[in-house]
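Subject: design request, 324 residues
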């Protein structure tokens, strides 16, 4: 046989043909934009480690959400920063809390936009942990579940379309499902952060959400980055407990995990391109070290190619026009 018998380059020569055989195509309607809403501020505050990303007061948040909708983004994931924090995250369960008010205001102005909410205690607790702190500073699992279920219910009551628990306590998907169902919200889906590693790439987010733990770290509840089989176990548990969408994060460091979970489940999978992933690309681009648009498209395509259906990304707004 004459060498080279196979020539894969044949299909790369013509750009039109190259487009026709493209396997992975990003869709604007599968992007989810995270948004931060903060009480007690009167103008948007830029987050230093995340150029282009802001904490918004309520009014500007609603403007931003409707702009996103007009640009073709179908869903937002809301994070709230309250004025009042305490041991038990009380302000997170308040029907007039920062998130509850934000949900109502957005749904009022922009009813079709899918409003997803982060369900977690860390933004609302004075200690910054995602669960209740017990003796010897242990993060207590079961007492946290009541609070998380109450928080998810209050988001649904305010009009949230999807609740997204990000705390990584055991059994929380079941408790949240139960509390939603018992209160008439059988049709509100749960997008669980099923596989969430204890990652340094959440650093910029903790500044944005003012949710850094005041002591210790999150390693007793978030996963060890060395573990692969455990991811399948976490994903299976959340599915059994009633999750409707399984999320994996961070995204780019976990492409293997996204692919593994894709093989295990028939549920839709979401991946979260987290704050540190955003900061790396955004700051390298600012310095002129790489082409931002190309880097964003490449990373999002890789995440989708690995098996994610939905992608939560801080680049949603600036990349959406490229996908048309
Ligand atoms: C917890 C939460 C975190 C993120 C989403 N939900 C941070 C954490 O676990 O400390 C990280 C998102 C990001 O880095 O962009 N409420």
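Subject: RE: design request

Done. Sequence follows.
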């Amino acid at each position: 046989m004459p060498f080279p018998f196979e020539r894969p380059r044949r299909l790369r020569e013509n750009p039109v043909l190259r487009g026709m055989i493209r396997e992975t195509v990003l869709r604007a309607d599968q992007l989810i934009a995270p948004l931060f809403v903060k009480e007690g501020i009167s103008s948007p505050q830029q987050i230093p480690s995340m150029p282009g990303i802001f904490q918004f007061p309520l009014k500007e948040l609603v403007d931003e959400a409707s702009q996103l909708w007009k640009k073709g983004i179908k869903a937002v994931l809301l994070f709230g920063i309250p004025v009042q924090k305490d041991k038990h995250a009380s302000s997170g369960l308040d029907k007039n809390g920062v998130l509850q008010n934000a949900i109502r205001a957005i749904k009022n102005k922009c009813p079709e936009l899918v409003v997803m909410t982060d369900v977690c205690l860390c933004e609302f607790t004075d200690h910054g942990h995602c669960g209740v702190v017990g003796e010897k500073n242990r993060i207590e699992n079961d007492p946290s579940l009541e609070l998380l279920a109450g928080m998810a219910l209050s988001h649904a009551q305010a009009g949230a379309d999807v609740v997204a628990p990000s705390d990584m306590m055991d059994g929380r998907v079941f408790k949240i499902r139960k509390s939603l169902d018992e209160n008439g919200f059988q049709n509100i889906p749960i997008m669980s952060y099923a596989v969430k590693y204890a990652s340094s790439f959440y650093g910029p987010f903790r500044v944005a959400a003012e949710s850094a733990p005041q002591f210790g770290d999150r390693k007793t509840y978030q996963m060890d980055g060395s573990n692969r089989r455990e991811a399948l176990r976490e994903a299976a548990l959340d599915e059994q407990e009633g999750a409707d969408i399984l999320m994996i994060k961070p995204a780019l460091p976990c492409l293997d995990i996204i692919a593994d979970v894709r093989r295990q489940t028939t549920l839709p999978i979401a991946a979260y391109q987290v704050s540190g992933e955003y900061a790396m690309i955004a700051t390298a681009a600012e310095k002129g070290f790489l082409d931002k648009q190309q880097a964003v498209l490449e990373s999002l395509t890789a995440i989708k190619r690995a098996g994610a259906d939905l992608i939560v990304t801080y680049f949603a707004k600036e990349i959406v026009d490229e996908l048309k």
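The chain has one domain: 23-323.
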